Amino acid sequence: MDSLTNNATIVLQLHEKKSTITIGQGILASVSSLIPHKQWDVIVAIVSDTVYTLHKELVDQSLALIDAIPINYNDTEQNKSYAYAEKYFNQLLEKQCTRNSLVMGIGGGVTTDFAGYVASAYMRGIDVVYVPTTLLAMVDASIGGKVAVNIKAGKNIVGHFHQPDYIIIDINFLHTLPQSEWRCGMAEVVKHALVGDSSSLEILQHKEIQYSHIDNSLYNCINSSVRFKASIVEKDEYEKNIRAILNYGHTVGHAIESLFEYTMSHGEAVAAGMLVESYISMKQGMPKADFDTIRDILSTYNLLPKISFDPRLIINHMIYDKKNIKGKIRFVLLESIGKPRIGCEVNDLLLMEALNFYLAMVEK
Do residues 51 and 107 touch, judged by C-beta distance below 8 A? Predict the structure, then answer.
């Protein structure tokens, strides 16, 4: 893409702090001007193995500018666990980190989530900065302060709200993003578009985004998606009401992830969840034309995984969803595109019908 003349800066005004997001091209190399690095006594960067392999020179040079100590992280969902986090607590102690130290997370959503959890729990919470390197992490996982680790019973069961002080979104990292990770991130872009990000929706409907092609359409889409999520988080930092719309596709999606023991990407699972929950929405009054639009967007960007499962097992896994109230499974459904409803109950017969519709569709 052509060089961008200006970076985009978004400042979230939150309850206890502000969180500054910078979006640009090649900006990690200027990290020393983006964060007040001298205010922390020790800076430790948890860097995903994947990123370090692909961008070692850039990461080393950038961290040297702020005297940060890199610690590698094998970035898998299996390693996003409390037992694994304990190893990093010990490493922070060895590096003499105090309550005035900083943890950075450089990598995809798993890495930023894990680094955020480590920062939130170490000495009851220290500052954290994210450098998201995947599309999913840029538009979703790094924004909003949710940090957690997985346990056997489910994903993200143990965690906190712990807001990052800064988020540095350098879109040059997308040059090395695999196709599977493009799809994973696009699922979250689509989610934002369907629950209210009209600018991204317009770009998606015009089919302007091409995987592995970094251009101004992609930049504008990322910018819009980030601003949309940031605006929702500002209104409802602790997910008491409107922020719950960002769980669209996630009730079914998390159940699929859990059933497949996290071998499927988060984006694929959420894309499947969005189609299932859109089908339910249509059956409860959403215009069929909107359902067709949603299905077309998900298909155009090749987001729907061809999987097979027993719908009854998916429903069983939903019992552990964090959004449930008094044992009742709660969904985010759509009245129409851009008009989500939260806290919706769905009977098992309709849920089974929607899951079977999905299975039949992907088998064609």
Answer: yes
Q: What is the mean pLDDT of the chain?
A: 93
The CATH code of domain 8-177 reads 3.40.50.1970
Q: Are strands 127-132 and 102-107 parallel, antiparallel or unpaired?
A: parallel
What span, in angstroms and rounded, lies between the C-alpha atoms of 261 and 39?
Answer: 41
- 25 in Cβ contact with 171 (< 8 Å): yes
pLDDT digits over 159-178, tens only? 999 999 999 999 999 999 99
Residues taking part in catalysis:
124, 146, 188, 229, 239, 243, 247, 250, 254, 266
Alpha carbon distance 180, 134 (integer Å) = 11
Per-domain residue ranges of the chain? 8-177, 242-363
Q: What is the pTM of this model?
A: 0.93
Helix/strand/coil for 157: strand
Pairwise CA distance, residues 117 & 119, whole Å: 5
Poorest-confidence range of 17-26, 262-271, 330-339? 262-271
CATH number given to 242-363: 1.20.1090.10
Per-residue pLDDT at 208? 76
